[in-house]
Amino acid sequence: MIITIDGTAGSGKGTLAKSIAKELNCVYLDTGLLYRAVAKSLLQNNIDPKNQEQAIKHAQNLDYSLLESKDLRTEEVSNGASIVASIGEVRTALLEYQRNFSKNLPKDRTGVVLDGRDTGSVVCPDADVKFFIDIPVETRARRRVEQYTENNIQTNYDEILQTMKERDARDASRDVAPMIAPKNALILKDPTLTIEETKNLALNHIKTTMQ
Ligand code: DC
Known about the structure:
By secondary structure, the chain is α/β, with parallel strands linked by helices. The protein has helices at residues 13-23, 32-43, 52-60, 75-84, 88-103, 119-123, 137-150, 157-173, 195-210, and strands spanning 2-7, 26-30, 111-116, 129-133, 186-188. The chain is built from nine helices and five strands, in the order βαβααααβαβααβα. The radius of gyration is 17 Å and the shape is globular. 2'-deoxycytidine-5'-monophosphate binds next to helix 2, helix 4 and helix 8.
């Protein structure tokens, strides 16, 4: 069973994907981490993520142990990831890893859950169940500020809102594998649902689809 969850920045894809994977005994891949690892690899070598030639080189020779890095979620890495993700050759270099992951399932697991921007449209177009999350950017920015505040990280709502809008626009407008709601995806866009309610709705949808 392959389940894909795509959607906008900070929409809660990861939280939903992890909880579904746990509930259904699936393995989980956060595909955004791959783009973040490429950005990190560039930044730690003082290379601008806009340098296409270097971005391609770093994606093709990616040290996958970087996926374990602790600081892949900084604003700098997030923006860098969105920039390198618009380069076709970077995407091609990361595609095989994602497809292999979805095909080589450990025997004791029932399926795989992937989250990202193109997992239902490009990485696994034949996935069994697809979701697309798109809640208002103001809600997402507010939640991000709350997370930072809880972790004692200084933050500014207007800046977060602005960078989220820029990332969404870049992710949705690029020529290669833009962020789109895949055909047949269940679209989750109600910002009033709690994490638990969203999870239950998704699990019911999976149950009905797989019957
Ligand atoms: O899901 P995320 O915010 O961690 O992703 C970081 C960036 O990576 C995002 O701005 C766009 C890119 N990305 C992508 O283009 N395709 C994916 N499948 C996952 C992420």
